[in-house]
Amino acid sequence: MENLVCIYTCESHADQLALFKSLSLYDNLINSNHRIIEVYSGGTRTEFSDGKLICKGTESYDALSIKTYEMIDYCVKNFNFDHLIKVDCTLAYDDTTTEKWKQKFTPSAVNEFVNKSSYLDYDGIHYQNATMLSFKSWANRKNISTESVSELVGSNTTNGFYTGKCYSMSKRFCEFISKRYKKSSYLYAERYGGIEDLFIGKSYYNFRVLAKVR
Questions:
Q1: 3-class state of residue 144 by DSSP
Q2: Which residues form the domain of 49?
């Protein structure tokens, strides 16, 4: 199994990336068969050089859906892999006292996940469901303006997702997103605060329906 590990970072997280690279987790990744790239945004076009993927778009929290789409699209078209594993460099320093779910993303937990023997088409460490209340709380906490929240979340059952700190996607799920969801990634940035993990979660719901994946 050939995995592509995408370490999500940005220029303002240089110290956190350095801390991430000081972990035994990173040493284990380097010594494994995984291909490792660093993923940034802020480019006028998406391009790869010296182990860094610079995605088209602004480097801002409310544009993460675009960054994620560009990452997936480029990787599908340019790299061979069975699964793409996305890891945030910030897991190395995050304060877990205010958001208890972050305790699930210890370096040892992530190390165990990235070295699993098999993965589902969409897999991760912590699965949760978005509600109107949790979405609004997230937006307020991040000081992000959103609109038409009820259209995105509502009271249906399609709001499940793996938390964005660390999750994986199969090549065929990535191909599904690459072909179908560029416009949707921009819509999420324009209207819903660019919420990346829910963007992926809802894409997977559609993948399951259309591809009849169970």
A1: coil
A2: 3-211
